[in-house]
Amino acid sequence: MAKKAFVKVMLKEEVLDPQGRAVLSVLKSSGYKNIKDVRVGKYVEILFNSEKDKKKALEEVSEISEKIISNPLIEKFDVEIK
Amino acid sequence: MKNSGINAGITVFPGSNCDFDVFNVLKDIFNINVSFIWHKDKIRNYDDFDFIVIPGGFSYGDYLRSGALAARSRVMDSLRNYSEKGGIILGICNGFQILAEAGLLEGVLLTNSSLKFECGDVYLKTFNYETPFTCAIEKDRVLKMPIAHHDGNYFAPERKIRSLIKDKGVIFKYSDIEGKISADSNPNGSLLNIAGISNKRFNVMGLMPHPERASEMLLGSEDGGGIFKSIIKYIKER
Questions:
Q1: CATH architecture of A4-81
Q2: What pLDDT shows up at residue B2?
């Protein structure tokens, strides 16, 4: 049974991430030379009212991730159920 | 100008902050009947409005993504129906972001490539004069309007951009004062310098610059007024 869901949202590879690029440039100028790229995403926690069947929870959270939490034009997401 | 037979609606979301600017322009400059539409309301009678403006601002604090939460509010269901019936919708700045998030316009507005809030006058070149939003704009005139946004970097996948261009849906591009389009005249990193687009039917348009802040010489430019004049002309002649 599932109590919580976690959604990780990242910009797709082909979409420029200026925030990630800014962090990368700060890391480099701070002396961390061995870093190739940085991308910044979002992490969303969802708490259910009552325990849910894991498969149903995954279906529901995938649906809301696709419809609301992410914009499929530019973002991809991963859902984890616990 | 006698436009008292024309009725406009302005949507209001928590965080809309250009609603009264648009109201002032439509009511006091163009003498149109204007009313506000609250985001929790449904539009009962679509004939009550000749056109609807989604104003700028920071609806829902830009949480999740700019325009994402407003795009899923109740009034947007009404606006979706309104657009399907051919109703005219103009989205300004946050209004453009909301229309894109709602899927009424193609693409999405990403964070400015500078990562900064960009604020100041820009110049625009018009690419399609045969729309309800541009039919009264003087041909080849370069328009001066202000921008004020953090997320105005227009993006759409290549396939969508191609069909947008083919369908003449690119309405405005950022240019210099002479109308030359280059990376230097692009304030936010928008793909192909795109500043405003419309849907295939040309009844829904979104743009990042603020025409309502450039509709009287007191504010430095009347060029934005051309968009409202176009809508009025289109409504009167249809």
A1: 2-Layer Sandwich (3.30)
A2: 75
